[in-house]
Amino acid sequence: MHAAPLDNPRYYLANFDTLLDWVCQCHSALLTPRETATVNAISALPEASRALLVRLMMRKGDHFELARLSYPEIGDIEAASLPLTASFEEALEDTSLCLRDTSLPLESMLALSTLPRLKVAFPMLPRAMPKRQMPQAITALLGDIRPRPLHEWLGEPDTSTLTLSLGDLPERLSLMYFGNLRQTLSDFVLSELGLLRCEPVVLSSQSRAFTQRWEVDHYLALEQLRKAWQEAVSAPAPPLDNPADETRADTHGTHKESVLKLTWQAIVATLEDESLGGKHAESASDSNDRQAADSNAWLTQRRDRLRFSLARDAERQGWHHEAACEYAKLDKSGHASRAMPRRVRALELSSDIASAHALASERLARTDIALDEQLALERALPRLCRGLVLPVPKRRKPAATPQITIEVPSLAVSAEAGIYGVERAVAHALATPESPVFYVENGLIPALFTLLCWEVIFAPLPGAFFHAFHSGPADLYRPDFVTRREAGFEACFASLHDGSHTATILARHQQKQGIQAPFVHWEILSQELLTLALDCIPAAHLEACFRHLMTNPREHRAGLPDLIQFFPHREHERYRMIEVKAPTDRLQDNQRQWLTLFARHAIPALECRVQWQAAEVQSEEAPHEKAPGEEASSAP
User: Fold this and answer.
1) I need a surface site. Which of 105, 315, 336, 465 has the fewest CB within 10 A?
2) What is the pLDDT of residues 532-584, one digit of tens each?
3) Which residues contact 539 (CB under 8 A, 6 or more apart)?
4) Could you give the CA distance from residue 93 to residue 95 in angstroms, rounded to a whole number?
5) Long-range contacts of 21-24, Cβ-Cβ distance < 8 Å, separation of 24 or more
6) pTM of the predicted model, to two decimals?
7) Rounded distance, CA 277 to CA 280, Å?
C-alpha cells in the first residue's frame, strides 16, 4: 500500500482506489448488499466520473453547485457528472451516487450562497444585513421555508446542484481502512511529499481493525455520541417557553443547564445500551458474541475514553453525584488511576464524605496502587478525615525535591537577546561550556525508551497496525499494551544491564531518523544531546524511568522536568534534571509523580524557582543561583 506519485494529475483517485481495494479485500463481509452494490457501481464508473466523485467526497458537505466545480484534470464537469446521477441498479429506487437539483434546506442554501448573491435574491432585506442574520430574516420574510432546489431559492433557472447520496459509506470505508476517523486520504499525499514517514510493518488480510460489522457500527455510534455532546456544550441556550423570561440571565442560564443535563443523561443512557451501533438483540444475547464484544479491547477503550470525558464534563457542570457514578464504571479500565481520585473528589463534593473516605482508605491500603493514584488520594485523605471529624492519619512525607532560586532577566529582556520562554532563560543562565543545559521537557526520556524498544513497539501484533500510514501501534494506550509485549520489553531492558543499550539507541537514531514514532520528536534529539545522555545517565536510572512510563504511557509521557544539565567531567552525579517554575507557577500532579519517582530511585532532580531580575541589574552580570534560605542578591 503506497501513495500515488503526485505527478499523476489524478493522484487522489489512485489513492482512493488503493483504499477501496483494501477494504474490498479485507472487509467485504462487513458491507451490506446495498453497500457492496454501491462500491461496485463506483468501480464501474468512467475514470473522469470516479475522479469527480472522489473530489466531492473529499470536500466539506454534501451539496455542491455544478457551475462552481472546476478541476482541470477532470475536464468537462457536466459530462463527468452524468454517470453519477444515473441509477446503478434498475430494480431499486434511489440508487444513484449523486442527486441532481435536490431540495435543500435553508441552512444548506445559505452555505452555498455568497452574501452579494443573497442580497440580489432577496432585495427586500436591508443591504447592510450580515450573513449571520440571514436565516432569521429570510424565515420572517418568506414564512414558508420548506426545502427547495437552489435555483428556486435564488430565482436562478440555470443554477444546478449535485448532492452526494452515499450516506455514511465514505466515512465507513475510511474507518475500515485507517481504523480511525482522524486520518483521511490526505495522509497518502503527506507520505508522498515525505512529510509523513512511517515505519514499514508487514500487513496481511488479518491486519484489520474490525472483524464484524457491528464493531464498525459501534465505533460510528460512539463518534456520533461524542459529537452530539460537543455540539450540545457549544450550542447557544434554547429559547424559553415564556418569552418574558428571555431578559433574565439567571433564568436563561438555568434553562440551558437543564437542557444540557438532559442531553448528557440521554448520551450516558445510550452508552449503556447493548444495542449501541445497531448490534442486534439476538446476537447480543449469544454468549459467544458477548465474549467477542468484551474481547474487542480497542472498542472498549474508546467507550471508556468517552465515558471519562463525560464524567469530567459532569464535574465541571457541578453534577458531582452523576460524575461519581460514571467514574465508578471505569474501575477496571485503563483510566482507573485517573478516575479513582476524581471519583473520590466527586463523592466529597456531593456531600457523601463517608463514602469518599471509605473508598480512598480502601484504595490506599492496596499494594498494587499506581503511583499517580496514590499521590492524589494521599492528598485528599486528610481533608476527608477533617470533614468527618476523624483523626488525620500521619502522611508519609515524600522525599523533598531540592530547590534552587535563580534570578533571570524578564521575558521581554530575554526575548530581545533571542531567548524565548522562562525555561530557555534558565537554561541560558545555568549553562557553562563544561556543563551544557538542554531544554527537553518530555522529549528525551520517552524518546530513549522508544529508540531502545523500537522493534518491540512496531511488532506486527494483531490489532496493532491496520495500514501503512501509522505513527505507532493502535493499542499503545490500552491496558494490555505492555503485557502483550512483555518478553520483548524485558529483552530490551536486559541490554541496559550489559551496557549494549548505548550502541542500540545510537544506531536507531541514525537508522530511523525522521520516521513517525511514539514519544519521539526528532528536532529535539541532536547527536550531542543523545551522546551526553547515554554517557551520563546511569542505565539503572533509565530503566526506572522506562518502567514508570510503561505503567501508563498516556499519562506518564508528560510531566518530566523541563531541562537536563550534564556534567561529563564528574565521576558521580554527572547530570541533573531541572523543573523550572516561574514566580506564579506551581507543580502539577504529573510533575509530582515523576519527582516522587526520582526521589525513590535517587535520580538527581531539582525544582528551580525563578525570580525576575530588577530593572537596574546589568544584563551582562551572571545570574545568581541560590539554595533554599539564602537571601536574594542583585548586586549592581
Assistant:
1) 105
2) 999 999 999 999 999 999 999 999 999 999 999 999 999 999 999 999 999 98
3) 496, 497, 499, 501
4) 6
5) 22/177, 22/467, 23/173, 23/176, 23/177
6) 0.79
7) 9
